[in-house]
Amino acid sequence: MPTCPVFPQRRRHPWAASLALKGALPAALALALAALGLAWAAPARAAPRGYTVDADASQLRIRVLRAGPFAALAHDHILIARGLAGRIAFDAADPAASTGQLSVPVAFLEVDDPKERAQEGFSGELTEGNRASVRENLLAADQLDGAGYPRIAVAVERLEGALPNPRVLVRVKIRDREQTLAVAATVSADSGTLVVSGEVDLLQSAFGIAPYSSLFGAIAVKDAVRVKFQIVARAE
């Protein structure tokens, strides 16, 4: 029986593998250079800069206006919040990445200081006894409940829009209730100081607080209060 011819195996020339390797090198080198170029083009972002709230330079002003049929017999009130504490992480390149926390001790609320009343344009001065009575009502269990909830907490969730006038989304906690608010603000920052200022209206009822009233509502205060703030923070 005739046998099938055996074809000799083709031998690969030694320089063939070398040529194949040389052909792959430019492609690999191109990929490496491209990756390196991407790394140069998109450097790692710096973290937001930390700022600590300056309690002596910061202030909250709270306007509480009178209401009721006998409102003419009552007074408007101005409350000043002192002793603020907190921290802000601010990113000027990406304001939306900014966050912060602020703590307001209710025990440090100043009530109807004569100079502050004059600055607000409020008529009439309150006696020390009147001021003490207003403060006692303010911190009572059915109002701010200073004994049960010694601090008002504010959390900055993010900034929306362009500097220097973004909207600041904040989560405010008074007593055991929270509300998220959009606050129009002005933001300025230099090498060492961050200043955030603005104002917002709050409804007491939104936080489970019934606006103060007496004589069956003949003398009362409005549900809405106006909060003006200037928060000054120093770079860490």
Question: How would you describe this structure to a colleague?
Answer:
There is one protein chain. The chain has 236 residues and is α+β, with helices and mostly antiparallel strands. It has a single domain (49-235), classed as Lipocalin. It has three helices and 14 strands. The protein has helices spanning 14-41, 114-120, 128-138; strands spanning 49-53, 59-64, 66-67, 77-81, 85-90, 99-105, 110-111, 151-160, 167-174, 177-189, 193-203, 213-214, 219-221, 224-235. The chain has an eight-stranded antiparallel beta barrel with strand order 1-5-6-8-9-10-11-14. A three-stranded antiparallel β-sheet has the order 3-13-12, with no helix packed on it. Mean pLDDT is 86; it is low at 1-9 and 29-33.
Question: What's the layout of helices and strands?
Answer:
Elements: H1 14-41, E1 49-53, E2 59-64, E3 66-67, E4 77-81, E5 85-90, E6 99-105, E7 110-111, H2 114-120, H3 128-138, E8 151-160, E9 167-174, E10 177-189, E11 193-203, E12 213-214, E13 219-221, E14 224-235
Antiparallel strand pairs: 1-5, 1-14, 2-4, 2-14, 3-13, 4-7, 5-6, 6-8, 8-9, 9-10, 10-11, 11-14, 12-13
